[in-house]
Amino acid sequence: MIVTPILIEAGITGFESPAAEYTQLGLSLDELLIEHPSATFLGVANGDSMNKVGIYHGDILIVDRAEQPRHMDVVVATYNGNFSCKLFDAKQRQLISAADNYPPIQISEGDSFLIEGVVIRSIRCHRASRFSHVCTN
What is the pLDDT at residue 81? Predict the structure, then answer.
């Protein structure tokens, strides 16, 4: 699964909530979904290799760089120059797809590899967005 990064600064911004006038609710998607705003970026999932863990093509990924990756976390990594969303097998040092038709990727010493962050949330769009690069399902 390839991830297209969407750079953000300190949270999700760009439009006001239709419920903004209901101040008694005190609900903020930033507060609900993002734990480390200055270390968080968004990405859009592309492909079907993570379907079995509930990440589908077009889903928005909330990726936290401040989180330490744990064994079998869903991560966004740069592997030999490509962004990829996979399960991180810390014990075997592999990137694993959540689909049977994709073999594990063994991370070798000669590979260029960096975990960019841990996927802490994913958001599924059920209707196309006016933002052409997001929610194109």
Answer: 92
